[in-house]
Amino acid sequence: xxxxxxxxxxxxxxxxxxxxxxxxxxxxxxxxxxxxxxxxxxxxxxxxxxxxxxxxxxxxxxxxxxxxxxxxxxxxxxxxxxxxxxxxxxxxxxxxxxxxxxxxxxxxxxxxxxxxxxxxxxxxxxxxxxxxxxxxxxxxxxxxxxxxxxxxxxxxxxxxxxxxxxxxxxxxxxxxxxxxxxxxxxxxxxxxxxxxxxxxxxxxxxxxxxxxxxxxxxxxxxxxxxxxxxxxxxxxxxxxxxxxxxxxxxxxxxxxxxxxxxxxxxxxxxxxxxxxxxxxxxxxxxxxxxxxxxxxxxxxxxxxxxxxxxxxxxxxxxxxxxxxxxxxxxxxxxxxxxxxxxxxxxxxxxxxxxxxxxxxxxxxxxxxxxxxxxxxxxxxxxxxxxxxxxxxxxxxxxxxxxxxxxxxxxxxxxxxxxxxxxxxxxxxxxxxxxxxxxxxxxx
Amino acid sequence: xxxxxxxxxxxxxxxxxxxxxxxxxxxxxxxxxxxxxxxxxxxxxxxxxxxxxxxxxxxxxxxxxxxxxxxxxxxxxxxxxxxxxxxxxxxxxxxxxxxxxxxxxxxxxxxxxxxxxxxxxxxxxxxxxxxxxxxxxxxxxxxxxxxxxxxxxxxxxxxxxxxxxxxxxxxxxxxxxxxxxxxxxxxxxxxxxxxxxxxxxxxxxxxxxxxxxxxxxxxxxxxxxxxxxxxxxxxxxxxxxxxxxxxxxxxxxxxxxxxxxxxxxxxxxxxxxxxxxxxxxxxxxxxxxxxxxxxxxxxxxxxxxxxxxxxxxxxxxxxxxxxxxxxxxxxxxxxxxxxxxxxxxxxxxxxxxxxxxxxxxxxxxxxxxxxxxxxxxxxxxxxxxxxxxxxxxxxxxxxxxxxxxxxxxxxxxxxxxxxxxxxxxxxxxxxxxxxxxxxxxxxxxxxxxxxxxxxxxxxxx
Lengths: 443, 461
What we know:
The complex is a heterodimer. Chain A is α+β, with helices and mostly antiparallel strands.
């Protein structure tokens, strides 16, 4: 027999108390999503979902146990209680996420649009159809793939037996399309995604034109010559790298020997033009929330300020161990993660960065990040594509080469930061950056 | 679990406004995972994913709606949301009559993980952790994980199918970090199988796993960077098969073949690989990580020859892509969970054993690279371009393994590497991975004997 969440939570707290689990905390998320994809004038996929997940944490003697379920029924109450007891008996670490009363004050931040919730399915399907139509009408060299529109809404709530009772709701919509461009036996892929909180943020023309330009610009790509070369990294690509290596800024990783930034607060670890900010209170930020997964109030901070490491990202556990206070970055399960995480933009436009570089590589895309990048050593070696630059001007597309380097070194090698900060469907964003040198392996 | 009568009612409701096919996939799972870092257990948690997805074909279009509310009312509401999206109303309001089909189990499970005392489970992690740490004082961190999943499914469809299955998976993951203070290198081993706790009695020794991960990390710590260039490469078995999986396997899935986004589309019967290459995708291997009894559409799993002596023989096909392509499904419809509509996926995918001597292929290769352990990789299925990390590589000089090198990656195109394989060894071994694609992350085995590729671009420094 299914229960509603309030009844279920009350029953779980009751059962926890009877089993000697105190305090206890429930985190619960409830999400809805809609997705439609269109290809060659036909709606190909249509997906709707509603999903819940609930986690119980509770103290049993010295330790805090954890257990979770997606079923709000009698059997789950028993499973959660047994699970927490067993989990607490197995856990051996002393430093656990604690269960605490609420903070005194929480900021407010909005990343939920009521208007978006009211947009009917037909309008979202029409958007996918519009993008698809524009793709089908493109240049004969373009072979369109799927055009996709997706919207999502999530409510997260956290409630415990010490008076904590918080909830936050967010939503978003995104749309993208991809295509293959073919000419003279050569093929190149193109992609464009936009996201936001209303239909105006996901303009069909911008997406279709962006995707076609991306694919066509790479036709006839040559190879790069091997060697060290100065590089301008496109903002979205720099964000991919930053996202892959964001774990190096986790105090949890640092305390476990998995980051080389352990104990280096106050030291210069990057070029003086690099300021890296974590901003959970960014209005309309994808990862904005007034509280983290432990119920701690979140706040905006510079992780790197003009090249100097100011702080790592903490939850209460790592902060206590380091003798500081939480930065509000608890991500659940004892982990630490950034929220809206970005390199603060400078004043120079992309053209000016290319001009400053003179001859080199404009790196527009890297792939295989989960394989070719080692988040612990900082080493990366990635299949890449981009453009060769001569005298500050793009001269031709290049592909089938790898760019290798080390993330820690890359931060130090930044010569200039562009003004074009972008968040490409991710809470991690960057402007374009000029770096003094990366190793290219081509022909 | 979900009764036949409720399934019948839900499928009827899903087709109430038309549609040519309806299916329900119900899942109620019991998972247990445990993580040890720095020699201490940090996390241990049971979880119960549960939900159901209803799929309706509206012509050749898939409508998929899923929910965690699996009460009769919740499922009927879900079916109604799917029905509301149907545009072709011909044949609406059909009655669905189900008959139970019992799925025979080819993968015997001896010990349910959840029945094993907690401390015995913890012992597995302790063994892997301490063996890894004993390898060298430069091992600064060991991360060991124990994962088990017991997935109970019910699958019913409007063609009258009502069947169920239980899939049991157990896995040990171990990654070791070797540190010189200024630099870190990692090594990892992640063996698993479609087995219960007997995995650790029959196939996997946790100490060997820990030691192997640690040795790999230590070897790489002192290794110089690999220099870049084109060279011949010998790739060892087991996880070496990841190259075939990524660069060729994904391009043979109907998901990329049907829309023409694969470089192997339209090439059945053609020579796409060197004649020494035969490749197989086999879901029937007893107790293997990528095996199944039935796929996630209820179709019995198969052993499928993908490439025979270099000639493309078959694609991996799910039900919907089969309809679009006019070809029969191959039992390859898979999904991570009820939260995904199924699509064509790999199972245990490997290059079959060949005729060549492993010692000879090294001896006659001249200067090149020996990839003893591969890391992960990725591929663009449209162009076949791939990139793989070499977790443990060695320079070969004049036909002899010379010295370890780090930071190497292998770059190329799937169609090219298949043609350039010039040696295939005699003993095939497999490695376990989680393969991510459109229908989520599913357990798959990769595998091959030791093979040689005559020429490939190596990325390095």
